[in-house]
Design brief:
By secondary structure, the protein is an all-alpha fold. Helix content is 84%, strand content 0%. The mean pLDDT is 87.
Length: 172
């Protein structure tokens, strides 16, 4: 009876681990899509509104989901405090502060870091070109993630269940 209860607990644990891994994959994809929306919003705000940068970031934060909302708010407040600061360096420090809350993979995170360079250019056209380049790279990354998602889900589920079954065999 005790071994049967142990087997059930092992199967539940392996199912939970598989679910957690798949949930992590989906969160990475969802946050990459949210970053794509943020880049499009930044492009629109830069193109059509002539607001000072801290106000622009606060306006973007009002319509942006977490954790990017916190990054924009923190970036705005730090830019207000340090008017003479180097904007890309300040943006990178804000992004690094919120890195534990962000589930973006390396390539998408680098695109987020490069977004700070957009705010430093004095030319509107060069800023827009940099944003469009980031959007193209992010779009390719999202498409490759979507293609790989189904295979990775199956792989993680198989590995977790096989580890659970191996543990059950060792238990018995």
């Amino acid at each position: 009876m005790l071994k049967a209860a142990g087997c059930i607990c092992i199967l539940l644990a392996s199912s939970g681990m598989a679910y957690s891994c798949v949930l992590g994959l989906r969160m990475e994809l969802r946050q990459a899509e949210q970053l794509m929306d943020l880049l499009a919003a930044v492009e629109g705000e830069i193109s059509y509104s002539r607001r000072p940068l801290p106000e622009l970031l606060l306006q973007l934060a009002a319509n942006t989901p977490q954790p990017f909302q916190d990054i924009l708010k923190q970036g705005s407040s730090r830019m207000e405090e340090n008017k003479e600061a180097d904007i890309p360096v300040l943006w990178k420090s804000v992004c690094e502060q919120f890195r534990p809350k962000i589930a973006l993979p390396g390539q998408a995170y680098q695109i987020l870091l490069r977004t700070g360079e957009v705010f430093a250019y004095s030319s509107l056209e060069s800023s827009l070109q940099l944003l469009r380049l980031g959007q193209k790279k992010l779009d390719l990354f999202i498409e490759s993630c979507r293609v790989q998602l189904a295979g990775k889900q199956k792989l993680y589920c198989c590995l977790c269940y096989m580890a659970g079954l191996l543990s059950i065999i060792i238990l018995l």
